[in-house]
Amino acid sequence: MSSLYHTISAERGIPQQTAAEENLDKWFRSECVQPPSPLLPESCMHYQAHKKSKTEWFEIILSTMEMRTAAWKYAHQKQVLMDLTFGVCSARALLVILMALDKTGKGIPICFILFTAWESAQATHADYNSALLTWLLGLFKHGMGQNDLGEPFEIQIGNMDDDP
């Protein structure tokens, strides 16, 4: 597995000797972007690097064009499911997966929100706080813009695996 990981990384131009946050900053910063694929910046709705004493968290919101189309079709003025996950990588990061239900009741991912826990948090999972989640969901909603009718993207109800 390790050899395969290194081979794929090399093919895609992802340096392994640099820290993950350096690679992410190259891919998503606002100036001189250097992504391994043009799909990455196109999918980015929000990016904030974590800079000590300047920002409290690393934040990124990713939603591909296909995911945005599904969001308008299955989530606009409907129910959205939020899966809150930690332990997705070696960093103290938390992942929110937003899903909508398609016609068959299958969960379709419409957005991935990844952010780091506060350095002072005793446990990574303890840093899910409603103010931060509200802020990030607001950024997602704003990033969705308006549909052809001029309506802003709205979620009718959100269900979490922790708190409705």
How would you describe what is shown here?
The protein is an alpha+beta fold and 164 residues long. The chain folds into 2 domains: 1-37, no CATH class; 43-160, no CATH class. The protein contains 5 helices and 6 strands. Strands 1-2-5-4-3-6 form a 6-stranded mixed β-sheet. The chain starts with a helix and ends with a strand. The mean pLDDT is 79.
**How are helices and strands ordered from N to C?**
HHHEEHEEEHE
Order of strands across the widest beta sheet? 1-2-5-4-3-6
Question: How many independent structural domains?
Answer: 2
> What is the number of beta strands?
6
Task: List segments where confidence is low: pLDDT < 50 over at least 5 consecutive residues.
Answer: none
What is the tally of helical segments?
5
Query: What is the helical fraction, as a range of percent?
Result: 25-40%
Q: In whole angstroms, how far apart are the ends?
A: 39 Å
Largest sheet: 6 strands, mixed
β content, as a range? 25-35%
Radius of gyration: 17 Å
> What's the pLDDT, averaged over the residues?
79
Shape type: globular
**Helix-and-strand structural type:** alpha+beta
Give descriptors for this structure.
164 residues; 2 domains; six-stranded mixed β-sheet; 6 strands; globular
SSE blueprint:
Elements: H1 2-11, H2 20-28, H3 39-43, E1 44-48, E2 59-62, H4 65-74, E3 78-86, E4 93-101, E5 107-116, H5 130-144, E6 155-160
Parallel strand pairs: 3-6
Antiparallel strand pairs: 1-2, 2-5, 3-4, 4-5
